[in-house]
Amino acid sequence: MIAIDGLTKTHRGRAVLSDVTFRAEAGRVTGFLGPNAAGKSSTLRVLLGLDRPTAGAALIGGRPYRSLREPLRTVGSMLDGAGAHRARTARGHLRWVARSHGLPGRRVTEVLERVGLADTGRTRAGRFSLGMRQRLGLATALLGEPAALVLDEPANGLDPEGVRWLRGVVRDHAAAGGTVLLSSHLMSEVAEVADDLVVIAGGRVRAAGPLAQVIAGHESLEEAFFALTESDTEAHAGAGPGIGGRR
User: What pLDDT sits at residue 197?
Assistant: First the structure.
């Protein structure tokens, strides 16, 4: 289980996260939604030990990421913008990750086949399409056979077949008892795969619970999302391009 409790973070005197609290349960897919500058990426960065909160805690299996003895076997992550060095092949990148975390070499071939990159051969990551880079990111997340997956915009750059394939990977992981926390702007896809939802805006959780509960009284997830985040979305749009960058 992933547990976010009272997570608060300030940056240069501005509140980025304010008492963010929610759970992502084992055996379920939790969709994590919010407009730009909502606090999604800040929450995930704290969860994965890349940033420190001002207050509160972010735990994976009851422990902070920094105290996990074998992090890649506990949680696999895929953050937007993170990936392999451009000069490495997919296999070379995964071999390096496997060796640095004490993982068996057989896992490299297994995950390459799982994500459809087994035939990339000597092609370097710098020549990959966006969709291929996304698949490699997911392969890296799956490498340690983790109980939890934390995925940030995993469908970005995937074609329709790839999106459908990703949906199966996510659902299969949850069906096997794993935990999935999935952040995305594609609400139609979140509606297809999520059991639970967390909606964040302005650094605060606006709704959290089962999908049906969050969208109750609305025609769709999109309508519920805009109703929950309307004031924050309008404020961000009115601020102009000088504000933003942090999600």
Answer: 97
- The bridge status of strand 179-183 relative to strand 29-33 is parallel
- Alpha-carbon gap, residue 183 to 173, rounded angstroms: 16
Note the pLDDT of residue 11. Answer: 86
State whether 108 and 131 are in the same domain.
Answer: yes
Listed as ranges, residues in the chain with pLDDT below 70 are 80-82, 231-247
From the list 54, 61, 66, 73, the residue with the least C-alpha distance to 23 is: 61
Per-residue pLDDT at 179: 98
**Pairwise CA distance, residues 80 & 183, whole Å:** 10
178 with 148: CB under 8 angstroms?
yes
Instruction: Kindly state whether residue 138 falls inside one of the protein's structural domains.
Output: yes
For residues 226 and 118, state if they share a domain.
no
For the chain, helix, strand, coil in percent to 5 are 40, 25, 35
Looking at the structure, do residues 140 and 160 belong to the same domain, yes or no? no
